[in-house]
Amino acid sequence: ASDLDKPRGFSLIGSNEARSFLAPMSATKIWGVGPALTRRLAEAGINKIGQLQTRGEEELVTRFGSIGRRLARFSIGEDARSVGTRSIRKSVSAETTFEHDLAAFFEIEQALQGLCKRVSERLRRANMAGNAIVLKLKTSDFKLRTRTASLSFPTQRANLLYETGATLLTRELDGKTKFRLIGIGVTRLTDTLDADPPDMLDSS
To answer: CATH number of the domain that 135 lies in?
Structure first.
């Protein structure tokens, strides 16, 4: 309930109060419910958290798959994740330091490919996707560069991470500047139901 008791940012309720407290709230208050899932819920006649409570876990899993289990549990205030002011993940990233400084694209992009695969795997394990791709570079004289590109939809696909990251990388290379570190990250995280729409991927 991080946005319910501003400006402090947290509101604590007991487990016995959870159902009645959450019931009148919009289903979009549940963490991870993005535009695509909101549309699917609306199609099922679900707009309020209380409507999730009345459907029950079995029905929600049947209709929405594994995410239905999470919706059912969140709707009654059950969440197995650890609680803390920093518990919500805001980015997924990976980086590596080169054995020696590099300046050539073909050398640096090999590392980028591997990092994109690692980030993609982490996103899939976390059931997340994001539409802001962040490239991190550190020069041989320890100057840090970060560049960001936004996609029109969230992704967790390694090839899209690489294509976006490689475009950003190309703009930073002049054949002279050497780099000692590269990293790739994804921010603006959301639920995977909003990720990689087939129509957008088919057109690329």
So the answer is: 3.30.1490.100
Residues 102 and 56 in one domain: no
* Helix (H) or strand (E) segment spanning residue 110: helix 105-126
Same domain as 195, residue 100: yes
What kind and span of H or E run contains 115?
helix 105-126
Question: Is this model's pTM higher than 0.90 or not?
Answer: no
Q: Report d(CA 114, CA 168) in Å as an integer.
A: 16
**Alpha-carbon gap, residue 90 to 155, rounded angstroms:** 15
Q: Domain end: 68, 88, 108, which one?
A: 88
Provide the residue range defining the domain that includes 114.
91-202
**Which stretch of DSSP H or E encloses residue 148?**
strand 144-155
The amino acid sitting at 16 is: N
Please write the tens of the pLDDT for every residue from 21-70. 888 889 888 877 878 888 889 999 999 988 998 988 899 989 888 788 88
The DSSP call for residue 83 is: P
Tokens linked to 33: 């419910």
- Reply yes or no on whether the pLDDT at 193 is more than 90: no
